[in-house]
Amino acid sequence: MQTNNISDSIVRKAFYESTEKTHVIACWVGLLLNLVWAISDYFVQPNYFVSFFGFRLGVSVASIAILLFRNQLKVSIYLCMFILVSGISIQNAYMWSVMDLAHFEEHTFAYMVLFIGTGMLVLWKGWLSWILVTITVVSNVVFYSLNSSLTVREFVINGGLMTLTVLLFSLFLIRSRYKLTYNEIKSRLDLEFSKQQLELQNVEIEQQNKSLEYKNKEITDSISYARNIQMASIPREDRFHAAFDQSFVYYMPKDIVSGDFYWIYETENVVYYATGDCTGHGVPGGFMTMLGLSFLEEIIAGKKIEDPAEVLNLLRAKIINALNQNGGAGESKDGMDITICRIDKINNILTYASANNSVYIVRKNSENPVIEKFPADRQPCGFYHNNAPFNTQTIQLQKGDSVYTLTDGFADQFGGPKGKKFRVKQLEQIILENCHKSFIEQREILASELKKWQGNLEQVDDVLIIGVSV
C-alpha cells in the first residue's frame, strides 16, 4: 500500500497560511483594546494615568511596528502575537505593583482576561509559552520589589496565585489546540494527496479513506476531549447501572468544569464508589478533581486497598504531598469533602468512610419507610489543623435498601419565595417521599425540584447526588 509523504515543512506552511489571518486580527484587536482600556485607567487610577498610558502606548507602538514590518523583519505572526502578549503582561505587572489592595483585586480580572483570551486565540509552540511564564513571573517579582506596598501574602491570595493558575491552564489549552490543529491540517493534506492517486489505485485509496476517516474521528474526539477533559476522566453513569439493581447519578456542574466528581470500581461482587466535592468549582475545583480521580484509581484499583478509612488516609496524604501543604501562612488549603463506599453485594454489607459528607439510607422493609443519616468524620480530605485518622463504619443492608451519597450543592442552593437555602432536611424529605419510585423518576424529580427552587437565581455550587439500591 502506498503511503502518504507529506513533509512537516508542507504541513507547517499550510498551518501558517490557515492561521495567519486569525492571528493578525487577534493582534489588531488586542492592540486596540489595550489602548481603549486606558479610558478605564483614567477613571480608576487617575494618579497613574500618564504612566499607565505611556506603558500602554509603548507596548502598542512597538507591537504595531513589528506587526506592520514583520515580512521585512522576517518575524512570524506568532512571534508578533507573543511580543504583544508579553508586553501587555509586563504592563499589567507594573500596574499591579503600584495599586492598593482594592484596585489590585479589581485588576486581577483584566490580567486573567489577557491569558484566557490568549489561550482561546493563540497557536504557538510550547517554548514561547514557557518564555511567557518566565517573563510574567520575573516582571511581577521585579515590579513588586520596586513599587508594591502589598505583603507577599496579600499579593498571592488576592490574585497572584489565581492569575498564575489561569496562565498555566491557558498554556495547556494552547498546546492542546496547537497539536489538534496541526494534526487536522496534516490529515486534510493527506486526504488531498490520497485523492490524487484515485485513478491509479482505487483499492489503495479506499483503504486510505478508511484510515483517514478514523484519523478524522480521532481528531474530532480529541477536540471534544480538550473541551471536556474532566468529563472524559469521570466514569460513565452506566457503570453504576451495571453494578447495581437500580441506580442514578444526578450531576449538575455549576460551570463547564466541575469541582464535584464521582468514581466507581467493581471487583468480585464488591463495588467501590466515591462521591467527592473539591475546594471551589470551575477551573480550580476541576484541577483538584483530576488529582482525586487519579489517586483513587491508584489506591483502590492499583494497590487494592479495601478499607474505606485507609483509602481516605492515603488519599489525604497524597493530596497534602502533591500540593506541598504544611500549614504555612498563605499556602493552599485545597482539599475535598469525599465519601468512599464499599458494598459487598453478596452479603449486603456497606462499609464507608467520609470526610464531612453524611451517608443516607432509606429503609423500605416496613409500611412506613424511614431515612437514616449516618455521620461523617468532621474534617476534610486535605491539610487540616487537627488531622485525625478517618474511621470506617459498617452497616448491614436489607434487600431493597437505597443508599444515597451527595455533596452540599443541592442543599446550599438559594431560591424559593424568600431566596433561602434549600436545606438538607428538605432534601431528605423529597428522597423519602419518592423512595418507592424508580431511580430514573427519582433523578427527574430531584432535577425538577432544584430547577423550581432555583428559579431565576444563579446556581451557587456544583450538584452531585448518587443513589443505589441493593
TrEMBL record:
GO molecular function, one term: phosphatase activity
Record domain PPM-type phosphatase: where: 272-468
Source organism superkingdom: Bacteria
Gene3D superfamilies attached to this UniProt entry: PPM-type phosphatase domain
Membrane spanning residue stretches: 22-43, 49-69, 76-96, 108-124, 131-149, 155-174
Coiled coil: 191-222
A Pfam family the protein falls into: SpoIIE
Keyword set, alphabetical order: Coiled coil, Hydrolase, Membrane, Transmembrane, Transmembrane helix
PANTHER family: HAMP DOMAIN-CONTAINING PROTEIN, STAGE II SPORULATION PROTEIN E-RELATED
Protein name: Protein serine/threonine phosphatase
